[in-house]
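2 proteins. here.
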Amino acid sequence: MVALPGVDPSWPAYRDVPSTAAVDPAGTTNSWHYLDNGSQLLEPPRGTLLCVHGNPTWSYLWRSVLAAGVEHGWRVIAVDQLNMGLSERTGRFRRLADRVDDLNDFVDSIGLTGPVITVGHDWGGVVSLGFANRRRDLLSGVVLTNTAIHQDPDRQIPAPLRLALHPMVHRWGTRDTSAFLDVTHSLARPSLPKEVRKAFLLPYRGGARRQGIADFVADIPAGPSHPSYPALRSIAEGIRTLEVPALMLWGPEDPIFSDTYLNDLAERLPQADIHRFEGASHLVGEDRDIATPLFRWLNGARSAGAASPEAVSPEAASPDQEPAQAGTFTPLEHELIQRATGPHADQLAVADMGADGQIERSLSWQGLEREVQTLAAALRQIGVRRGSRISLMVPPGVELTVLLYACLRIGAVIIVADAGLGRKGLSKAVRGTVPDFLIGIDLALTAAKLFNWPGRRISVATLPAAKRKLLGVQHSLSELRAASGDGTSTETDDAGLDPAGLDPDRPNPAGLDPDGLDPAGLDPDGLDPDADAAILFTSGSTGPAKGVVYTHRRLAAMRDTLAQTFNIRPGDGLVAGFAPFALLGPALGTTSITPHMDVTKPKTLSAAALADAVAAIHATTVFASPAALRNILATQGELTDQHRAALAGVSLLLSAGAPVPSRLLTELLGILPGASLHTPYGMTEALPVTDVDLGLILSAEADAAAGNVVGAGNGVCVGRAVSGAEITVSPLNQEGTADGDPTTDAGITGEILVHAPHVKERYHRLWMTQRVSSRCGGWHRTGDVGHFDGDGRLWVEGRLPHIVTASTGVVTPVGVEQALESVDVVGLAAVVGVGPAGTQAVVAVVETIPPVKKPGLAGAELAAQARNAARSVGVELSAVLAVPSLPTDIRHNAKIDRTAVAVWAAGVLAGGRVGKL
C-alpha cells in the first residue's frame, strides 16, 4: 500500500476470512484489509479496540486512534468492511445482517478473546452495535461517533440520504461519480487537507470500486418495509440490555445524524458518557481530537475497575460532582403550597407590570397554585411525564412562572435557553437538548419552524387555524387549561390522541411514568430529589453556551442559599429585573413582580419602570443586572416624588452577571437611599458563590490603595463565600495553566474552585468539560482566575482563556482594565494578548467617551495616558487601540468578548484592514 499521512507502515494487514454470512455461498472465503497496531505494543495489550468505519470512509478514519493506542497500551484493529476500503469486492450485495455476520467472522478468524471495546462511526456504528449485542462474551464497552440505530417510522430519513436514494441520483451519485464521497468529505470542519482527502479517496477510484458505497446507501432502512429494517430494529432493541459502559463522541453540525439520533441512542444506552463537540460535523474524528478523550475515558475506567479486568466502570469513566448532601430535602415549591393553603392564600403572589405603570396580570397564592395544578394535569394529558424535556420559550413573568412550577411538579426537565444567547446560540441550545415539547410565544414558534427545532409545539396564545398549521402547533395553553377538567380537548389535532400522549410504537424513555394520570405524579413530595430538574444555559460570553444540569435537590439548595445569605423571608416583596431570579420568587415565598422591560435587553429597564414595580407591591428587594443599573441611573430624571418615595422603601438591591463599579453603586444610593447594595459573584453553574456589599467594596478598595493588606487589589473584590459554600484557588504556572495544589493563602493567583450544595450536577452532554471542571473531587473549577487577600476576601482577575502569557510572565486582564478605566476619556477597556503563547504582546483596546469615529490606533495623548495607567499596576502595553464600542454578551450587556477583541486587534496590528469590531 502507498504511504499515507498518519499511517504507520507496520499497521496494514490482510486476512482471508471464512464467511458465514447468508449472502455468501457455503465455503466462501473473503479477503479483508485492516489496520492493526499490535506489533508496536511492547507489553500485552490492556484490551482491544475494534473500530468499524461507515459509508463512504474506510479504516484510514481511525488512524489517530491507532497511534494513540500504542501510547496507552491498547491494541487497535480498524477493519475495512467487505466491498469497502481495500477489502475484497465480493460482487454480492451485503445487507446489514450480512455485515454483522462479517464482523463476527473476522473477530473469530483473528482470535480475539477480549476484553473488546467496539468503536463505530456512521454505518459502522450500527454494525459494531450488532456485533456488540451478539458477542457479549467479549464485550467490555462501546464507543460511538455520529451514527443512528433507529429510524422513527413517522419521520423521513435526512434529506441528503433521501436525495442519494432517489432513482435518478443513486447510481450516478454513489457509483458512477465520486459525488457521494466528495459531499461527505466536504462536511469536515475545518476542510480536510488535500493529502488527507486524497487518502480517503484512494480505495474508491473507479465505478467498480464504488459499488459498495452504492449498496450501503441502498441498504438504508428508510421504513418498515425495507429488507434490513428487521435487523436494525432487533439491534436497536437488543442494545437496551447492554450493561457495559458506553461513550458517545458527537459532531452536532452533522446534517445527517442530528442530535435527535444521539438522543435516541442515549435513551437506549442511559449509562453512556456523552460529549458533543460544538462546531464539529459528520466526520467528527477529523474535525476534533477524539483519541485523547477516548483513551482518557478508557484509562480512567480501567484504573477504577482493576479488580475486574473484563469490565470498565461507568462510574470511574465519568467523575461527576459529588452528590449534594443528602439531608432533609424540601421541594422547591414547598413555600408556594404552604402559602396557597394557609392564611396568605388570597395575598398577591406574582404579577407583571404593563407599559402604563399598572399591574397587567397577577395571581394570588391560591390562584398560582390552582394554575400550576391545572396546567400540570393538562400537560400530563398530552404526554408530559417525569423526565420529559420541556423547552420554555416564554418571557419571564406570570406565565413562565406557572409553566415552570407545573413542569417541576410533574417531574419534567425544564430547558431554559433564553433569547440572550442570540439566534445561533439559542438554536444550538435547543437542538442540543432535543426537547420533547416546546412551549413558546409566537416569535419562538416561528424560529422553531424556520430552524426545525425538535419537540411537539405548544403555543402560549390561541392562534388562528392557518398560522397554527403553518407553525406546526399541536396545542395551546388556553385550550389545554380548558380541557383539563374532563380530560377531553376541543382541538382538532388532539382527536384520537393516545391517553399517554405517546406513540405506542415508540418505546418510553427510561424513567418516565408508565401510568397515565396517576395523581401521585403531581405530588412534589413524591419526586426523586436527585432526578434532573432543569437545564440552564451559560451566557456563551467565553465560548459556546453550555447546558448546566440541576437536580431538584440542587435547585432547592440554591433557594436556601439565597434565603440564608440575604435574609429573604416569605412575604417580602421582590422586583425581578434579572431573569434567573424571577423564577425563584414563589420558591422563596416572596411576592414577585416583573417590571416593564425587554427582558432580552436588561439595559431597557428604566428608573420609572423600576419605581412603578416597587410601588405596586411595596417591594423591599430588587434584583437587576449591571446593565439595568446603568440605565436606571441614566433615566433617573423621569422619577416623580412618588417614585422616589417608593424606591426609598427598598432595603436590598442585588445585581449579578458582571462586576459593578463602586462609583456606580455609590450613585445608586441617591435613588435607593435605604438599600443595602450587594453584587454577589457567581455563574450559571453556581449562583451565588460569594457576596459583597458596597461597604465591603469601598473598604477593600481603600486597602488596595493603601497597600496595607496582603493581596488587596488587582481585580474586582467579590467578598466572601455565601452560606454553605467553600472556595479555594489552584495556582497558575508560568504558562498560565492552573495546576497547583488548591490554597487559600493570600496573594496567590489561580483558578477559583467552589464546593457547595447548590453547584451544578453536571454539564449536559459535555463529558470532557464536566470531567475537567470536577476533577478535584467534588469541587467545581469555575474557569475564573482570582486570589484571596489577607482578610479572606476574594478578588476576581478574569477568565482562564483570557490570560495573557507575555515574556515577562502571566498577566490577568481585570486589574489592568480597571486602571485603564480610571482615565477620564475611557469608558470601557479590554486587555488582550496578541501573538504566540509565552511571548504575547499586551494590547489595550479602549471604548472612549465620546466614542471615536473610526476604530484604529489610539491618538498619542490617549495612548500615553493608557500606558501610564497600565504602568501603575506593573504592566507595559505594546499597543493601545480605540474603538467606538466594545462587544459585550447579549444576556448581560456587560461581559466583554475578549476573544473577539483579541482576534480583531491581531488583525489590525498585523497591518490588515481596520474593520468594525
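next one coming up
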Amino acid sequence: MTAPTPPTPPFRDPDLPFAERIDDLLSRLTLDERIGFLHQFGPAVERLGVAAFRTGQEALHGVAWMGPATVFPQAVGLGATWNEDLVRRVGEAVSREVRAMRARDERVGLNVWSPTVNLLRHPLWGRNEEGYSEDPRLTSAIATAYTRGLRGDHPVYWRTAPVLKHWLAHNNETRRDTTSSSVPPRVLHEYDLRAFRDSVEAGAVAGVMPAYNLVNGRPNHVSPYLREHLRAWTDEELLVCSDAGAPSNLVDSEHYFDTHEEATAAALRAGVDSFTDHGTDSSKIVARVKGALEQGLLSEEDVDRAVRRQLSVRFRLGEFDPGREPYAGERAFDTPEHRALAREAAEQAVVLLRNDGLLPLAPGARVAVVGPLADECKLDWYSGSLIHRSTPLEGLYERFGADRVEFAEGVDRVLLRTSAGAFLHVPPAPDALEAARGEEGALDPALLAGRTDLPPLTAGPDGTELALVDWGDGVLTLRAPDGRYLSVADDGYLRASADQPGGWIVRETFRLEPHGDGRLLRHLGTGRPVRVTPDGVRAAEGEPAVFELVVTERGEDAVARAAVAADVVVVVAGNDPHINGRETEDRTTLRLPAQQERLLHAACAANPRTVLTLVSAYPYAVDPADLPAALWTAHGGQAAGTALARVLAGDVSPAGRLPQTWYADDADLPELLDYDVIGGRQTYLYFEGTPLFPFGHGLSYAAFAYGELTADMTESGVRAAFEVTNTGAVTADEVAQLYGRAVDPSVRRPRRELLGHRRVTLAPGESTRLFFDLPLSAFAFWDVAAGRWRVEPGAYELLAGASSEDVRLSATITLEGEPGGPRPVVERGLESADFDEQSGTEIVDRTKESGDAVTPLGGKDGELLYRRCDLGAGVREVSVEMSGTGTVEVALDGGPSLAALSLEAPTADPYTYVTMTAPVAAEPGGVRDVRLRVRGALRVARVGFTA
C-alpha cells in the first residue's frame, strides 16, 4: 500500500489569503522559534521547511557590500535629477540585480534597507550623500519612485521589500546615539514626518528603520510615533528593523533603561519587529526577550505581533510560493541596459552652476584636466564594488582624444625624512597580490581587516616619493608610486596596501603635527604616532619618529604647467566620501580644503578659461564669481567620468537641479543640533539670507521661456498650469518648478514651498503646457492650537519658474479655508510643547512611553509663547504640572508676572510630576497671549487655568 500524502498545510496554500496563511504558520511555530525570528538573522525551522531569513540588504544606489554590482550615482545625485521616472528605473535595475545576485549567493537579502529619506536640513551632516533633498515633497517623490522600482509592479508579489531609513529627525553624526533632536509639533508634521508619510501612503514601502538618535528626549527605537503615525498611514503590516547595535544603545550609551530586558521589551512594544544587534549572534537578543517574558515585561502577543509583521514581508516576497513567485528566474545583472541607465543617471545628475559661455567646450579644444579627483571614481560606504569605472580624465580622453588632454593631479610630491636622516621607503609589492577591499563581499564591511600580506615600510637611504593630499583640517592621505595608499593594519605596521581609503575606521588617514624642529606623523585610525623600528615602520606607542617633510614638487606648480598650455582648464575638486564627512563624522566647514583652493587659484592664474567641477557628496561655499563656468555632481558611480565629459562637450545639455540650498558662508548655518527649521530659519523654506546657489538652481545650454500661468479651483483643490518653451538652439531638459506661499499668514509660513515639478525634454522652439493638480491639503499647516492640519482662509500666491529664486510667473488664488479660533485654555489647558515660539528651551519626554514636556536648556532660563489664548470672562487660578526643581512664571501679553510657581525640593525623578497652583489676583479675561518664563532643572508638562 502507498502511504497517503500528508495534507498541504494552509500556510503553503497559495490560494489562501496571506493573513490566513500567516495565522496558520504562527500557530505551528513554538515560542522559542518565534523568539528566534526577532533577531536580524532568523534561523531556519527545518521541521516546517521554513528557511532562514535575514532582514537587511544595503541598496542605496546599487547593491552594496556583496561584491561587484552596478553602481549608480549617490542618492543626493539621484535627488539632483528631479526625475521620478529615471529613479524608478534605477530602483527597478537595483532590485533585479538583488534577485540575480541572490540566485547565486543566498547571503544577498531581499529585504533592502533603502532609500534614506532623512531630509538634508543641514549641509554639514556627514551623511548628506545618502538623502535626496532638503525639501520633504521632493524627497518623498524621489523616494516613492525608488521604492516602486524596488518593489516591482506585480499586484501580489514584491521583487524586494524596501525599508525607509532613518526614522526620525536624524541629521547629525556627532554623538548620534545620545543626542536628542528637539522637534516642535509644526516641524514634526510639516517637515520631518511628511517625507516618510507620503512615501508610505504610496504603498511601495515594507517598513522603516528607526535612527540612532532621540527625538524630544526619547530614543527613536521606543518612539510612540511608530504607532501613532507610521502605522496609522497604511493598512499594510510594516516591518520595523532596528539600526545596528541600537537596541543595546538603549542601555549602554543612552542609559535610558536600567536593564536590557526592559529596553528590549520597550522597543518590541513600541513597534520594533527585528533586532539588528551583535552581528550574526542572536543569542543575546533571544536571552533578553526570554528574560523580559519571564519578568512579565512582555507577553506572547507582543512577540507574535512582531513575527506576524516579518512573515507578512516574507509572504509578499514569494518565499512560500516558489511556483507562483514571478521573480525567481530573475538574472538581469550588469546588463547593457543597466550600464546605459547608470550613464543616463550620471548625466542627469550634473548641475551647471554658472556659465559665461565657456561651456560647452569647443570641438577639438585642448583640455587640461587637473585636481585630486580628476582621475578618481570614488565609492562611498554604501557602494558596491565597481565592475566598470570611468573617471573624468578617462571620459575626456574618450571624448576628445588622449592627444588633446593634459593631466595634472595637483598633489604634493613629498619625501619623509627622519631626524636620523633616513627616508621612508615603500618596498616593492609581490606580483599577483591585487585584491581590492570589498571585492569578496561582506555582510558588514566594517569587519574587513587591513592587509598584512605585503611588506611593511622601512627607513633607509633611498626614500620613496609619496603623493600627499590634504583633505581638509590637516587630514592627509599618502600614496605610493604604484597607486596604493599607506595603510595601517591590525598589527600596526605601515604598508602601501589599500586601493582607496575606506572601512568603518579609515586606516589610510594621517596628520602631520608640529614637534620640536620637525613633525610627528600621527595615524588617525589608531591615534598613534608613527615609529621606525628594526622590523619596519609602524603606528605604535613609544618614542615617535620626528620627520622633515621634503617637498619635491608642489601640486600648484604641476597644475600651472598643464593649465598654461591648454585652451580650457577643468579643475576637478571635491571630497573623498570616506574622509571628513561620512557616517560617524560630520563636516566642520563648507569651505573647500585649502590645498584644493590653492590648486584652483593656480589654475585660474595660469589660464582664466577655467571650469570648476565639484564632485562631492555635499555643498561647498565656493564663490565662482571669478570663474567663467562651474558645475557640481555627486559621486556619479561607474559612469561618472563618461557622463561628465559628455556634458562638458555639449553632447548632453545639463539639467540637474540643486536638491538643497548652497549657503555662501558657515555663518549662514544654524547649529548642527538645531532641528527647528521654522524658528531657526533653515532651508530654502525659511532662510532669509542670500544663498550662494538657491534650492532648485541649475542652468542649461538652452534657454526657456515661461508663460500663461493659470490657477483654477476644482472640486478637490486647485489646478495650476503654465507653458514652457525652449527658446534655445539645442534640445534640452528643463525642470519646471511650481511653488506656493501664503500671502498674509497668521503664523510663520514658508517663504515659498515646492508644490510640484516636471522634468521635460524640449526641442528648439518646442512648447509644452504643464498641469498640476493640487489638493487643498497642499496649502495646509499644522495648527498647534487645534492639534490638526488646517487650511487658513485667504490669498495664496503660486510661483512658477526655474528655481526657488528664479520665479518667472505668479498668480494669486483665494481659498475659503477654515478660520482659526483662539485656544480654549480654560477648558483644555496648554500642553507645554504646543508653543508658537520659544527661546532657550528644548522638548523632552514627559514619560518614557509617551508625551512631551519642555525644559530650559542647560537648566538656565527659557521662554515659551502661546498666542491667542481665550481666558473667557476671567481666570482666578493657574496650575502647572512639572517635575524637577525650578520656577515657572506666567505672564500675559508680555506684561509683568501674574503668578510664579516654584518647586523648591526636587521630585523623585524627571518623570514624577506634581501640580502646583497659584491664585491670579486680577482675574484677567479675554483673548490674550500667554508667556511662560521657565528656569531651573525642571520639566513643564502642562499649564491649566481655572475660571
